[in-house]
Each structure stands twice: as C-alpha cells, then as structure tokens.
Amino acid sequence: MRERARSLSGSAFVFFTTLLIHGIPLQGGPILAGDGILYASLADRVMRGDWSGVLDSSRLLWTKAIFIALVASAKSVAPAGWPILIVAMNIICSAVTATLIVSFVRRATGSAAAAGVAFLFYVTSFDVYFWNWFVMTDSLYTLLATAAFILTADPIVAGKRPRSILPLASCLLLTALTRPPGAALIFPAVLGAVAFWPRREVHEGPDRQRRLLWLIVLLVMAGAVLLRTYIVRDPDRWPSDWIKPKIVQFALGEKAGEVVAGQPSTYVVPPTTYMDHFELQASRFVRFFQFLTPEFSRRHNLMNALYFVPLYALGLFAIAGAIRTNDRKRRDLVLLLLLWVAALAYYHALTVLTWRYRAPLMPELIILAACGADALRSTIASRRAVTIESVP
Is the distance from CB of 351 to CB of 250 less than 8 angstroms? Predict the structure, then answer.
C-alpha cells in the first residue's frame, strides 16, 4: 500500500510539473498555421454535418478524423477561443505522456534514478514542448502512439501475456485515425507481440523461429522499397485515384532530391537510377536522427547538441548493455524499442521527412536512454563492487 501511494504521488508530481513547464506560452499563445488551417476548415464543414472532406481517401484525411472532430467540438464550445482549448488539450496530453513514460521506466528498470532520467529528458525536450503550442495532431498522436508502445512492451516487462489484445488493438485504431503514421505502428506492434511476448506453450527452436521471422520482415521491407520506388518514378503506374495525390507529392519531392523537407542543405542530386533512389531513401533514414544543420541558428544547434548527444550516448549504452546482459526481458525490451524507432524512421524514409516527425518518437528514444542510464549505473556499481572486493 505504501509503495502504491508513493507511485501515485510520483505520478502526480510528473503530471503537474510537466503541465507547468509545457504550459509556458510559446510566442504569445496558440499558433494556427500549416496543417492547422486545413483542420480548422474541415472542422467548419463537420459542424455543418459535411464529413465528405474528412472522408476524402485520396488525401488520407480520414487518418486525422479524431483530431478534426475534436477541433469541431472546441469550435462549438468556444467559437472565438477554440485554439486555446486545443492547446490546453495538447499540454494535458503531453503531461499524460510524461506520466506514462516515467511509470513504465520505473516498472521496466526498477530504478527511480532511471525514471528520473526519463522525466528530465522529457520535460526538457524542445521538440515535444514546441509542437504543443500548434493546432496540430502532434501531442495527441504522441500520447496514443506512446500508449500503444507501452501496451506492446508491458507483457515483456511483466513476463506474461495480456489477458486480451483489445486494449492494444483499440489504441492502434485510435492512433491510425489521428495521424497517417499511426497505421504504420501496426507493423512493429504485431511483430513485437509475435517475437517478444512470452509464449503460452514452450516450442522447440524459438531462436530459429525468430530468425525466420526477421528474414521474412527483411524481405517484405526490401519488397516495399522496390515497389515504392517503381511507382514513385512514374506515378501514372498507380492504378487508382486512392492516395494518388500523396504519391505525386512523394514523386515531386524525390525528383527534386529532397531528403529533409524544408532543409536545402540536406538535398542531393535528383535521382535518375534505382540505385540513386535507394541512396536517397537511406540518407533520409539516417538524417531522421540528425540534430545539427546550417539552417538552424547557432543557439538552436547548441541546444540540440546539449540534448541529443547525451540522449543518443545513453541509447548506445542501452544497446551495449542489452548485448552483454543475460536478462532476456531487458534484451527484448531494447530490441522492441529499436524496432519501433526503426519502423517509423523507415516509414518516413519512404514517404516524406521533416524533423517535426521525429517528435512523436521522442518517448521511445527517451525510454531507450533511460535503459542506458540504468545499464551504466549497473556497470559502475559492479566495477565498484569488484574494486572493493579486491582490496586486501
């Protein structure tokens, strides 16, 4: 009972502290720009009973139906001040996300220090904080995607299968109806459940089955790259109007040599051969994790370096620790984190990439860093114990 009370008080501290820090106004208040203007327009139509714009499958706008419905609800409640309601919802979503992350890290590592590391990385993440103040899907999508990850990872940490997959399936559905990459999360969630969840029955050769599974995954990914490149080279090869505008958008970006949209320093010579396309997509995958660029100010680059260098360094410690450890749960958790991050980076490598799209993956990168902090703590403690034992 005392432990539960301590956990609840810790969760309350994380929630309200994040609410306070992420509630500091950015540029004077809510920002309505870019996609937010489109959502506001579609919400006006929804309020008139016209859902045709939202259900437009050619542009996949139905994948943002939940957020557009929330904007319509905010407009009906506060016609003049609705952007403030949306930003308030975003900040609350961010605080709930922080609470989920810290609670999960505490369960996964059993370390209050690792949970503290996760909390510090989250509340100081400018990527997360910045997009809370836009009338966009980022904060809600990040919350739902993080919940989907934790529902996938919890059985690994607990060492037992869930009673039902309904919570995970429902969360994935909501995520897919909030933002297009939400549908892509089905892949790492299903693969993670098949590969890492404890089995009801012990079968012979589980490692051999896993190797076969990973081989199939690699073949499917390679096939997706080939098919995608074949169509993007000539969008008229796509036989339907469904998602045709998106394919044309991807083709125009690719033919311009676009790697990170809006970042000219990342652009390459427009591809002409299949190999050129593959190299561009590989570059897009790698640059998904980039945090320094000439387009940023010196202060922005410095802030990013101070944040991402320790974040990525601790992530490497987590990977090294997973390789060395005999703890199957920790190894599988790190593998799931890498699978989750790689799947989304791969998705954006094949579609379109801006560094805004990295923000919803910050929770998984932070959890990985927290695992690295725990591995580093364990290593230091072990070496200290050996040193003490060796003293005569």
Answer: yes
Provide the β-strand partners of residue 134.
31
Each domain of the chain, given as residue ranges in start order, spans 2-390
Percent of the residues in the chain that have a pLDDT greater than 70, as a whole number:
93
User: For a pLDDT cut of 90, what percent of the chain falls above it?
Assistant: 80
Per-position DSSP letters for 140-194, written without gaps between them: HHHHHHHHHHHHHHHHHHHTS--S-SHHHHHHHHHHHTT-THHHHTHHHHHHHHH
Structure tokens at 28: 């004077």
| pLDDT tens readout for residues 11-26 | 999 999 999 999 988 7
Low-confidence ranges of the chain (pLDDT < 70): 1-9, 27, 200-207, 384-392
Handedness of CA 247, 251, 253, 257 (dihedral sign): positive
CA distance 264 to 269: 11
> Which helix (H) or strand (E) covers residue 212, if one does?
helix 206-232
SS3 content of the chain, % helix, strand, coil (to 5): 75, 0, 25
CB atoms closer than 10 angstroms to residue 150:
21
Of 140, 44, 46, 125, the C-alpha closest to 92 is: 140
Of 243, 244, 272, 245, nearest to 256 by C-alpha is 272
301-339 confidence digits (pLDDT tens): 999 999 999 999 999 999 999 999 989 999 999 999 999
List the structure tokens of 154.
């919890």
pLDDT tens digits along 252-301: 999 999 999 999 999 999 999 999 999 999 999 999 999 999 999 999 99
Phi/psi region, residue 110 (left: phi>0; alpha: psi -120 to 50; beta: rest), is: left
**Cα angle value 319/322/323 (rounded, 5°):** 90
In sign, the C-alpha dihedral spanning 70, 350, 31, 54 is: negative
Q: For residue 362, what are the contacts with CB-CB under 8 A and spacing of at least 6?
A: 122, 125, 127, 128, 142
The vertex-355 CA angle with 345 and 259, nearest 5°, equals 70
Residues written for the chain: 392
Diameter over CA atoms, the chain: 83
